[in-house]
Amino acid sequence: MKKTKTLCFANNKGGSGKSTTCCNVGYELSKKGYRVLLIDGDMQMNLSLCFFSEDKVLEAAQNGNNLYTAIKEQKALDDYIMPTDYEGLDLIVSSSLMSGIEYELFTKWQREFILKKCLQSVKDSGKYDFILIDAPPTLGGWVMNLLCASDYLMIPVEASPWGLFGLANMLEFFSTVCEISPDLSLLGVAVTKVDERKNYFRQTMEALSSTDGVYLFDSYIRVDSSIEWAQDNSKPVAAHKPSARSAKEYRNLTEEVLSLVNRKK
Predict the structure, then answer these.
(1) What is the pTM of this model?
(2) Domains plus CATH for the chain?
(3) For the chain (length 265 residues), average pLDDT per consecutive 10?
(4) Backbone φ and ψ of 161, nearest 5°
């Protein structure tokens, strides 16, 4: 049986494109025939809204069919999985109640590994080739949970004057998590929201290229209104507009992700 690979998209800087990257890489993997489970770990529920209408997401958030309920009650995640409109692509939605998850975890035994335990039966089932997790833009016990449940960390970074703000803290946090979860690997940094006309794009790439021990993805995602229109229609960009420039860029990024993951077997 093939091992399910779990990849967490995280950055403590908001607006870095975590949810969008997680959504579109997950979709592109499914288009290649891989079976993919997406997990929305952020109270903002942006990943959930990439695939479902606001009404459907709110219904799941209110009726208990969401990640918060599973973690609070420490239940296996199998019963919280919702199919999307795309073959081989499923999702566990989030809830606005995730804002209180740190409190829920505080008194729990081995609280850093609760998600890992809740996810274990899903991984053991062999149903999925990949599990992709969208993390909130914070550093704390919950993000530590997400990373401890993952094999790889991928850090989307916005190509803006503030895009690199906090990256050092993110990398330091990653090193701390590796002390209790030594199998976790840093896959790399992917640059998003690129405007090649701006000087800070070149500055961002130069700064990341010179960061020791960090792989910088060759593929980057440029600013594209098709992404916003796709989000407005609760679709991955390639499902909304296959010819979009960003759709091709996400395909290239996904190819690079696959190459790196296969190399790290």
Answers:
(1) 0.95
(2) 5-263 (3.40.50.300)
(3) 89 91 98 98 94 91 88 93 97 86 71 92 95 94 94 92 82 95 96 86 84 90 94 96 96 97 78
(4) -55, -30
Contact present, 185 and 9 (Cβ < 8 Å):
no
How is the chain classified by DSSP, letter by letter? -PPPEEEEE--SSTTSSHHHHHHHHHHHHHHTT--EEEEE--TT-HHHHTTS-HHHHHHHHHHT-SHHHHHHHT--GGGG-EE-SSTTEEEE---GGGGGHHHHHHTSTTGGGHHHHHHHHHHHHT--SEEEEEPPS--SHHHHHHHHT-SEEEEEEESSTTTTTTHHHHHHHHHHHHHH-TT-EEEEEEEESB-TTSHHHHHHHHHHHTSTT-PBPS---B--HHHHHHHHTTS-HHHH-TT-HHHHHHHHHHHHHHHHHHHT-
